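Box S1 | Example of a co-folding query
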Amino acid sequence: MEIKQLLRDLPKIDELLKEHIVNNELNFTMRTIVVETLRETIDRYRELILSNSIDEYSKKDILKSFLELLEERKGSRLKKVINAAGVIIHTNLGRSLLAKKALENVVNVVDNYNNLEYDLKKGQRGSRYSHVEELIKKVTSAEAAMVVNNNAAAVMLVLNTLCKEKEAIVSRGQLVEIGGSFRVPDVMSFSGARLVEVGTTNRTHLYDYDNNINEDTGVLLKVHTSNFKILGFTEDVSLEELVQLGDEKKIPVIEDIGSGTLIDFSKYGFTHEPTVQESIKKGVDVVTFSGDKMLGGPQAGIIIGKKVYIDKIKKNQLTRALRIDKMTLAALEGTLKYYLDEKEAIENIPTLNMMLSPKSEHKKRAQRLKRKLQSKVKNFKFALEEDYSMVGGGSMPTEKIETYIIKVDNNEFSPQELEKKLRENKTPIIIRISGNEVILDVRTIFDKDFDIIVDAFVSLD
Ligand SMILES: *Cc1c(COP(=O)(O)O)cnc(C)c1O
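Box S1 (continued) | Returned holo structure for pyridoxal-5'-phosphate
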């Protein structure tokens, strides 16, 4: 049929509202949603007609599409996606995935009443932080610990407690922006601390700190520049030197270590990344880090260090606004438990497992996915190649993890078009484009999702 005719024949909203299926739907669903969905359905048909993708349709087709679209709209907007991009701690895709025990702990705690703020021994009001404090102390060897919403909140709380209306001395080379929303200078000004920048972008010396210490100095702050590295003619003051200076002048040394690595990755062939335990051992007074980066747990900000300071921080009224909820606590406890045995942690915490699982394992998995794709999809070519995955989350910026990828080739879609199509799949598939090629990195794809990927390509075939 002619395009004009097809367009003219598209039913009107009022007409569709009279259809039994639609009318029935109005018994359960808000009218505005039904009308919006009808409009969107018609718009989609109009597009299909204009792009010559269909040359006929029936009212039945339209009603079927309407029901599908309505189903989609009633479903969750926040939903599962498949990470085929090979970035392990993908900030846009929810960072770390929870380990099994963490998930079980969450379900058990939120599905029941619990002792969130109840001391079962004394039979009286308890502290929500007590549940994880002992565990954090054990794992990190710190004297005391406290947990808040995220690491940005942790840094702000620490500075607000120890450095309000005082000066925080920090190296110019560490005034970083992380993930587009954490800017060290901004967080410092929210906290009420005055920023004193010392040194230069590439070189800061101990005397730069020393020369700026006065009666207004509140803390010496070190920020781990987790998402970039300055190479070449650089000089930085070591943690040991800073701690020594702080000790001499009786000024606490605070470290925002960012990623919060509890495992020494150099044992597994990575370049050395400072661990939380090392900072404590070197005598840093207060250390803060994220729960959902390299630690592999829920979003949280963990504050550890000397008891005198942590006690002060716990008493700050701001904690009430920054406190974590029971789901986070349950997830954090479940995650930290694994760290009592490093092997258990690596095996069970998805972030660690994805980082450390051997390349050979992923070769087999990539071969399996490729075979599945080739057996069902005709118009795409799939090639197995070696490549690199990234840690992500502003962690280990220069570290490349060897992996296997599937390169996708076809004559119909450009890489950008294919990226969009896969992103618009019912379960969105997020890929990476390298050069001019679409790439699926199996390191961050689960076996259980292979069939979803195959089906997505089948529907584009
Ligand atoms: C990621 C990061 C932050 C922010 O942590 P969130 O948990 O995302 O709030 C702060 N400082 C450093 C050094 C970081 O790497």
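The mean pLDDT is 94. The first helix runs from residue 3 to 9.
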